[in-house]
Design goal:
Number of strands: 13
Distance between the termini: 43 Å
Oligomer: single chain
Helix content: 40-55%
Structural class: alpha/beta
Strand order of the largest sheet: 1-6-5-4-7-8-9
Largest sheet: 7 strands, mixed
Radius of gyration: 33 Å
Shape: elongated
Length: about 375
Amino acid sequence: MKLPGQDAIARQAGEHLVPSRVKLPRKAVERPIRQVAKRLVMALVVLVATAFVVYADRSGYHDNSDGPVDLLDAFYYATVTLSTTGYGDITPVSDGARLINILVITPLRVLFLIILVGTTLEVLTERTREEWRLNRWRSTLRDHTVVIGFGTKGRSAIQTVCATGLKKEQVVVVDPSSKAIEAATAEGYAGVTGDATRSEVLRRAEVHKARQIIIAPQRDDTAVLVTLTARQLNRSAKIVAAVREEENAPLLKQSGADAVITSSGAAGRLLGLSVLSPAAGMVMEDLIQQGSGLDIVDRPVVRSEVGRSPRDTEDLVVSVVRGHRVLGYDDPAVGELQLTDRLITIVRATPTAHVAPHARPLPGD
């Protein structure tokens, strides 16, 4: 078994002690820097407009320091007026200048303040709205799927379960990489940044309320620690874990995983099958890709099928699940189908943009 010692595990856990954070998917909105830049430009436009209004009527203003008002004085007056500083060194003295201050300068001052204060209010409102969304998400999330690791294996697992009808709102991704979580939220999944070996991080993902947990980290020792932690928090959830080395699979099952997939072994077997028969390899690859061509479906027995043989059903039955046993379709122990049985069948998926196996050219054709 290629499991590092306790020191290596502790060291690896220490490397991932990053602050955990829940990030919910959000609609495409303008970037904050662009919002601030836009408001800054609006404020500058108001400032310039005010300065030119004052300069156009400069004869109606008096500068206590040198008398006449030039363009620089106009910008200075616009700045201290819009910001409500008001030093009083430049003042409107004519009736026309005072009327323009009432009808033009004052509304511009109010608009300037709205732009500046509005930015602050929007930030506070956005924080409040995000906190409200997070609390609502936590209160309504039930029987969801938690995916540990958003690498190639994690992405493929999510795509497969979502192809069977699982909504994206029911998927929570946990990964120590903030970039991975950003990619997950961009695809519509909720994400938690942090080390999944820590109970606090898994609690943020509401693991204790999850129906199924998919564990697909980069390292086998991490998978063991995550499985132990997840099983401690949730005794009833279905846990499926992936490991690279087959000799570590028994340890994952002892840690609480219901099923363990050896990624390197599965890829090797598919390679070997493709060497022996490229067509068979293509069919197997299509079977494990949900939503296109042929799909493997786990479904209950309907009443019209009770008492019949697996060969007599409309679907192509591969296996029969009876209790905790998985029986082949031709196993004598199956006999007649029962209402409590489940069938593993091969069905034609809804046509999509993917090409079905029989329509693809074989290698070398």
